[in-house]
Amino acid sequence: MTDGAKERRIQAVKLADALNAIEGVPVSKYAKMLSQCWANGDLTGEQMKEALLASHYRLAAQEHSAHETMFSQEQ
């Protein structure tokens, strides 16, 4: 990756972080780490997306399991 491409990626990450902050959207440490890896050229955009989606699916499954446990205990 050229220095110019890396700098453009770094600026893109900064812009995305700023837009999320303006909108009040929290960004996880994991997502920030993935963005930094992408900016450095360690991950492709597709790899970053796949890792983030997998993380979100795991979180959703944990939430679903916790809600099922709470519901079954209430009955």
TrEMBL record:
Please report the name of this protein according to its UniProt entry. Answer: Antitoxin VbhA family protein
Recorded hits in InterPro entries, A to Z, give:
VbhA-like (IPR033788)
Name the domain of life this protein comes from.
Bacteria
